[in-house]
Write a structure and sequence with these properties.
This protein is of the alpha+beta class. The protein contains ten helices and seven strands. The longest helix has 20 residues. The relative contact order is 0.11.
């Protein structure tokens, strides 16, 4: 069946202080069960219709019509189609892109925002009208308008509570040290003089995933990268990913990916 997807490209001029618009797309036939992927650019999406989920290493967030969500450069994610999911997106780059996303308070792991259903028709019309002579203007206009609305919402809230800062610190330290098999929430809390029970609660609240599950996901995704990079020893992959028991690692890997690491290595040889 011929795809109904639409993707229009722009020759971006990234001088550092502007936003470079790369493309403006409408995905009408998204894959139901995708794999984790990553891009070298930012993307702003809006769900036109249907249901699905946006998943990062922090967990999965449901998607429905009118939701907007961002993906960051070099960040693992996937978009799952749970039924009739259609979405549009703008890919963009540039130093100003980082500044604007930061200003809007869009974190890497919880970048879904609700309440933009009034814009789905506008987006569809914009995609239809976009052409070589105006795609950058149309896409950038929509991008800036949505970021402006997000900034307006954020201005009425505390930018970062004390508990949120603690959760973000623990997340950062976990990402830096997940390859250490001795790393645990208790270790991090002892080093930072935090109460482990309290940190466990705020981490789950702000990250949308429990600490142990997050740590395991980081380790398994690292193992997947090593396999894709050509590593052939299950024991070595386990050790480099923070597992001191290769058998336990193999069980977790198969449960997570549906295939044993040994079989995954064979597929890449």
């Amino acid at each position: 069946m011929e795809s109904d997807n639409v993707c229009k490209f722009n020759a971006a001029n990234d001088d550092g202080e502007t936003i470079g618009i790369l493309n403006f797309c409408y995905e009408k036939n998204s894959v139901p069960d995708p794999l984790f992927t990553m891009n070298a650019v930012f993307r702003l999406h809006i769900v036109a219709r249907g249901e699905g989920a946006f998943a990062t290493l922090n967990g999965s967030i449901p998607l429905r019509s009118g939701d907007v969500f961002f993906t960051y450069p070099s960040t693992d994610y996937y978009i799952r189609n749970d039924g009739g999911l259609e979405y549009m997106y703008i890919s963009f780059v540039g130093l100003r892109a980082y500044k604007l996303v930061e200003r809007a308070g869009i974190p890497r792991g919880a970048a879904v925002r609700n309440g933009f259903g009034d814009l789905t028709d506008v987006w569809e019309h914009a995609v239809a009208c976009a052409a070589d002579g105006n795609i950058d203007l149309i896409a950038e206009g929509i991008l800036l308008y949505i970021i402006g609305r997000l900034c307006a919402v954020r201005s009425g809230k505390d930018i970062a509570s004390k508990s949120e800062k603690i959760a973000l610190l623990i997340k950062k330290q976990t990402e830096e040290r997940f390859c250490d098999p001795q790393l645990s929430l208790n270790v991090l809390c002892e080093e930072n003089f935090y109460n482990a029970k309290y940190v466990s609660s705020v981490f789950k609240k702000y990250m949308g995933i429990g600490f142990s599950e997050y740590l395991t996901t980081l380790r398994l995704n690292n193992a997947q990268r090593l396999i894709n990079s050509g590593f052939k020893s299950v024991k070595q992959i386990a050790a480099l990913s923070g597992f001191d028991d290769a058998l336990y690692f193999s069980k977790l890997y198969k449960r997570h990916y549906g295939i044993s690491p040994a079989k995954a290595i064979e597929c890449w040889i």
